[in-house]
Amino acid sequence: MEPQEIREGFLVKKGTLLNSWRAVWVVLSEDGVDFYKKKTDSSPKGMIPLKGATLSSPCQDFVKRTLVFKITTEKKQDHFFQASHVEERELWVKDIKRAITCLAGGKKFARKSTRRSIRLPETVNLAALYTEMKNQDDGVKELKLEQQNRVFNHCFTGATVVDWLISKEKARNRPEALMLATGLMNEGFLQPAGDLSKEGAESGEQAAFLDDTKALYYFADSGFFCEGYSSDEDVLLKEEFRGNIIKQGCLVKQGHRRKNWKVRKFILRDDPAYIHYYDPAKADDPLGSIHLRGAVVTAVDYVPDAKKKDIDGNLFEIITADETHYFLQAATDQERREWIKAVQMVSKSGK
């Protein structure tokens, strides 16, 4: 009997020989993880057996990369994967851990809602707490803060986090709140932004979250960026990133010049209505942006100039107000419907 496929999607993977990171199509089954160079490939580029394996998340082996998790096989081979946002990483980690546990117990895979933490009680759900903190109306407010001739956008102070946890009765006192905040940082939900908070995160064997008005942090999948004092033109450009993140994840995009298809990480923001796309393997500035105000988005079955071997369904098209056409491909039909719905909403309501 063929192993059950549990989860599939795009992740960024570190090469085993070279220090390069590339987007790959990943399929998790009951007994292993297969990864493909392209989603349309019939045979995997590599296979990772899960019997006797361990999983580490968050993996902090790479200073400049967040949302990384590590699978170590029974033969002590390390495989590093990077997700595009926190929720995506949590889903992969949860299912891979469950697959490893089921293999060890000789059981068939079945999802179980569990979350372990070295420091926190079993009843604490950090993922749910993180979602509450990000709530636009009642969560921790993201601000633009200046410090040491730098401007930190979409961030907040450590003291603000501690105050919020106490005010929402998530903790009885500051030591308890500090323990929760440290757990959120250790799990990769919160990231240190400034020099002071980074020193705390990297000091000693145990990373420390700082209850300090000068220690800056940000949500791992927010629109955070840091800049020096800039000109008026730079400020206008950064306005594109001011909106709330509505949806994010990897899609396959057709290039405008060579008409080739490549995996890109997309971040959809409202007010102003923009979708930015990035090389998922790099933590650089966006490769481009699409202004969605007045745009039209529809599902399509055919793309002009596309080779059949490059695509296999789940296509949709964005036509901007200036009649520029963008062709994109989602991993599943459900994902395509979600992206179309989100883009339609932003194109109507955003500026």
UniProtKB/TrEMBL annotation:
UniProt cross-references to InterPro entries, sorted A to Z: DEP_dom, PH-like_dom_sf, PH_domain, Pleckstrin, WH-like_DNA-bd_sf, WH_DNA-bd_sf
Gene Ontology cellular-component terms listed: plasma membrane
Record domain DEP: where: 136-221
UniProt entry keywords in alphabetical sequence: Acetylation, Phosphoprotein, Repeat
PROSITE patterns with a match to the protein in the record: DEP (PS50186), PH_DOMAIN (PS50003)
Annotated PH domain residues: 4-101, 244-348
Keyword Repeat: yes
The keyword Magnesium appears for this protein: no
Biological process terms in GO annotation: actin cytoskeleton organization; intracellular signal transduction
Source taxon at top rank: Eukaryota
Protein name: Pleckstrin
